[in-house]
Amino acid sequence: MSIRILIVGAGAIGGVTAAHLARAGHHVTVLDANAAHASAMRDPGLRFDELGHESLVKIDAVSNVSELTGTFDFALVFLKALYIDTALAPLVERNLVDTYVSFGNGLVQDTVERLVGSDRFLIGVVEWGATNLGVGHVAQTTVAPFVIGEKDGSTSPRTETLAALMADAAEVRVVDNILGQVWAKLLLNSTFSGLGAVSGLTYAEIASDPNGRNVAFRLWAAGFDVSHALGIELDEVAGVSPTALVVRDDADRPAADAALEDLMSKLGPTKASMLQDLERGALTEVDVINGGVTTSARHVCAQAPLNNLIVQIVHACERGERRPDRSTLAELAGTYNSTS
Question: Using one digit for the tens of pLDDT, what is the confidence trace for 283-320?
């Protein structure tokens, strides 16, 4: 019997993943609360821009749990933090899924584990980028791996099974330090998704802006220090060591600049998911991304005021009191000598 896969949340990353897996012939069903989006995926199909190549991929998609038939071996959860409880609770109540894989941004893993139970829980990290272009339309913007693993670092048949099927969407790495991957991705997102949201720029545009680059290094060091205090052993992000991007003094800058160029060669075209949210008038995940750093900092009796300032600015953008603008990078740079 073929493995049945449920994609929960078909925005940019979830939509691209669904398109890859469905096109490869896997048994894929999408659950997405946007009824118009689900309808478009069924007919005429999801419009999929794949690094310059466009196709239509028909995908079985529904907008309500009551429309699902049968049970699923894996649920790949690409939901934003705001919607996790509402979407997963009915799946758990109906016992529809064997294993849930949390692919969300920020520090959402504990929320998913609490809802579904540790025995039905895996963690995943997405290193590549994508953009939601509207109802029934997504685009993949960069190529990089999925990373998956058991929370406790053990090896299991289900991680190998999951890796084999997801290899039709992207390279897959199975690791024994998935929390190190989660935090490495959090450093990336708190730095570049946070700055992208407040500036309106892509990752590469931030790195090319002198103020953006300086603030990025400051944010990266803040997240790095919090993870170290928590005892997290950071893994690579897109093949780059997180340590290489830490700037303590001028002597560290040349190596950090080189590491940043390496990172941007792979992820530079990425448009921050939080910026995409703001452009659609939607709420962001800043509270579990930059806010995740500040909350974790408090747990180790530290502070992360620059991250906290980004949280405040993004919320102001959500309320319509501010707009993403490059000038915000200069504003943040004016504070970084006294914050981190």
Answer: 999 999 999 999 999 999 998 999 999 999 999 999 99
Q: What angle do CA 264, 265, 269 make, to 5 degrees?
A: 65
| CA distance linking residue 292 with residue 92, whole number of Å | 26
**CATH, residue 94:** 3.40.50.720
Residues 6-27 pLDDT 10s = 999 999 999 999 999 999 999 9
> Same domain, yes or no, for 155 and 185?
no
Same domain, 14 and 122: yes
Residue after which a domain boundary falls, among 125, 159, 176: 176
Of 107, 142, 176, which residue constitutes the final position of a domain? 176
CA dist 335 and 337 (Å) reads 6
CB neighbours of 172 closer than 8 A, spacing ≥ 6?
A: 145, 146, 147, 148, 162, 163, 166
Q: Is the pTM of this model over 0.70?
A: yes
Candidates 83, 48, 81; CA nearest to 65 is 83
- In the prediction, which pLDDT does 337 show? 58
pLDDT range class, residue 238, cuts 50, 70, 90 = confident
- The domain of 41 spans 4-176
